[in-house]
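Progress against Task 2.4 (sequence-to-structure conversion) is shown through the following example record, which the project officer requested during the mid-term review.
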Amino acid sequence: MKWSGHRESDVPSIPVFTISDEKALAKNVQALEATYDFILIDGTPILSTLATRTILISDLVIIPILPSGADIWSLEKFIERLHDAIQVRGDHIPAYVLINKFNSTEKRTVGLDKEVLEVLKQLGLSTLESTLNYRVAFREAMIEGLTAYEYRDPKAKMEIENLGIEILSIIQQFLPKSITT
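Structure tokens generated for the chain above:
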């Protein structure tokens, strides 16, 4: 909400809503579906009932993690919550891990970041090909009320564009053929 409040009037409007009532979540999202093609839910990192309900109403779950041991340990708990949601829903919920603040250049951490990718494979979760590298631009864009795509850093913009293209290609796998052609 603070981010959207920093957006200036000359940039495109991106509607942002706060839904903190777990019981109203599905109802509110259902109402938004009448107006929007895509609804992004930025869920809480705390594995609460609200997190479970968010998973249950999602068509696709993107799990951003840092390439660190602490995030892998948290991810293991999230996977349990995801499997519980799948059992309740009785249907597959596609889930992909997004590596955030990936370090592809600094030699001493590149090995660790790549090791995290190997651990993710062992956990049985799909990992997006796209990664978001550690960039100051992501933090600066937020402060200015911009998306990284709108921001002045071409590398950050390219990472977001590649991520968007990859997510759209995943989404198209789930849409009826008449919509994708």
